[in-house]
Amino acid sequence: MQHSDNVISPPQTNTPPALVRLTVEVALYIVIVSPALGLRLFNLSAYPLTNAEASQALAALDIYNGQVPEITGYSPLMASLMSFAFVLFSPSDWAARLPAVLLGTILVALPFGLRKQLGIFGALATSILLTVSATTLFWSRAAGGDIAVAVGLLLLLLGGVKFLTEGESPGLYAIAAGVVFLLLSAPAGYTALLVLGIVTLIVWIANRGAFSATQEKVSAAGDAFRGAVFFFAGLFFVLATAGLFNLTGVAVVSEIFTVWLGQFQLQMQPGAGFPAIFNLLFYEPLILLFGLAGVVAALWNRHLLDWLLATWTAIFLIIDLAMGARSEGQILLAALPLALLAGKQIGLLLEGWQTEARLDAEGLFAAIGLMVSVFIYISLVAWTKCTPAQAGCNTAWILPVAGVALLSGLSIVFWMWYGPKMAWRGAGLVLLFVGGVLSLGAAWKLSYSPLSHLPYQPVLQLAPSTRLPAMMDEIERLSMARLGDSRQIDVVVVDLDEAALRWSLRNFRQARFEPDFHSADNASLIIARPDAGQPLEGAYVGQDFALVSFWTPNLLQGKEWLRWYLYRHLPTSLPGSDQVVLWAKTQE
Question: 63-101: b or e for each residue (b if 16 or more CB lie within 10 Å)?
Fold first, then answer.
């Protein structure tokens, strides 16, 4: 072993312990980040692009083709990154989602910079949480700017910590990059800036001396601060304009801001995302459990970073409730700070198990608690599946309730025997297991279930229909049968300007969009809504398809709600869908 070390570096008689820890720590981050990238790349193009994703992809496609984007309100940052991906890999669903994948992987790695504040175990736990979190995983696989907002927010936090508490001037560059990401990514970025402004105002009111100290640090930074300003301007211009290939991208920033202002409505609008508080309950049980523990700890210990994260979460959830037209990916603005708080608490829990836990105390609690948790799950599943005709079904709910009561009583008994710290370590490990299983299940079902199950996910209000790929397959089949080329047939879309349909037809050389049937020119294939009428000339045969599917859990009660929460699919409650008709001209 010593000889192998000498080949790589000069001989050392004593390796500094800090260097050893850092090497192991870096290796652990590599172990975490590598699967994170794999999870985000796995089966990336299984789902068709949603309308929102397709809008971004079409803007990038216009830039790729040297044209001014026709789509309004797109993300300049994502359009720039997507167009570069198209240059490398050609336009496709996979290439459109690749920038989000890379940004999501960067998000997983960034907690490494906060290990002094979160602790080594806490930062590692946070990275693991962000790796398997249902919402961060899903939006890391979506061709939109919401994951870039999350990266910008974490860069802003990381830069602020590095500059204000550790005096490192590179933190100013991280702050600059974070602000650029927030401005250029999505409307949720402006929500983040609003929350940041409110939190800053609260800190200023509570401790004005801190602002004087901040001003002194900025003045002392001098050249570094000016360099960060130039870096901000250059990065903003490059990312907004796709490296000068889309000069109109700068003007789109005002469109994003206008869209954001329009999201403040008291009543929930069609297609708007569910409030973040509900989606956290649906998708992030582990982050929510330990994040709330972190909020309590922040109020108790008054650690500055923890207090800021807790305050941020509370203010954001209030603002989010006032946004009836909120974007679906805005939930990341709550999931990220809660993940940081949760990661720190999990890290402290693991440190406690490493240094203080006893097998005859915490170990016994955890063993019994895990067995009871499995019993609760099995009995709960059995109750949700039984029917009134089966004997004992009406009282089957008693078993899971009894299991919860037993677990609660166990916590009280061990609290009395061994004290609160021991009880928390034992109960914390049980909650870590239960919350982890539920969160992993939610993440897998959200990102990797069949397309037919995607409408059952409330985090996505308008999911692509399974009938959209079926329609494209039928169009290609007809084109091949009639012309010997799967993309050569002439297709006219009548009064139906949907981004997902435009994206799906992008490779059809004779596809065009017209306002009415009069402009269809006796086309071989016509796509239109049922209420648009029928082709005016020639003999056509119509077949029904759909572009989007939708479903809501609002009307579920009792067993149905629990069954949906466990499986995210209800065969007895079918999703709705829109309807389009593919008119095929009959051959003589």
Answer: bbeeeebebebbbbbbbbbbbbbbeeeebbbbbbbbbbb
Q: Of all helices (H) and strands (E), which one includes residue 8?
A: helix 2-8
**Contact, 583 vs 526, CB < 8 A?**
yes
Beta bridge partners of 526: 492, 583
pLDDT in tens, the chain (588 residues): 344 443 334 444 454 555 545 688 889 999 999 999 999 999 999 999 999 999 999 999 999 999 999 988 899 999 999 999 999 999 999 999 999 999 999 999 999 999 999 999 999 999 999 999 999 999 999 999 999 999 999 999 999 999 988 878 889 999 999 999 999 999 999 999 999 999 999 988 877 666 667 667 767 777 888 999 999 999 999 999 999 999 999 999 999 999 999 999 988 888 888 899 999 999 999 999 999 999 999 998 888 899 999 999 999 999 999 999 999 999 999 999 999 999 999 999 999 998 887 887 888 888 999 999 999 999 998 888 887 777 778 888 898 999 999 999 988 998 888 888 888 889 999 999 999 999 999 999 999 999 999 999 999 989 999 999 999 999 999 999 999 999 999 999 999 989 999 999 999 999 999 998 888 888 999 999 999 888 877 789 999 999 999 998 887 887 889 999 999 999 888 899 999 999 999 876
Distances in Å between the alpha carbon of 251 and those of 75, 78, 180, 240?
11, 15, 14, 9
* Claim: this prediction has a pTM higher than 0.85: yes
Those residues with Cβ within 8 angstroms of residue 153's Cβ, 6 or more apart along the chain or in another chain: 178, 182, 192, 333, 336
Quickly list DSSP for 162-199: HHHTT--THHHHHHHHHHHHHHHH-HHHHHHHHHHHHH
CA torsion 71→74→76→82, rounded to 10°? -80
Residue 313 token pair? 């979460």
Distance from C-alpha of 369 to C-alpha of 499, rounded to nearest angstrom:
51
| CA distances from residue 397 to 258, 405, 558, 562, 572 in whole angstroms, order as listed | 50, 13, 11, 12, 21
- Taking the C-alpha atoms of residue 306 and residue 416, their distance in angstroms, rounded to an integer, is 30
Cβ proximity of 510 and 482 under 8 Å: no
Q: How far is residue 416's CA from residue 474's CA, in Å, rounded to a whole number?
A: 68
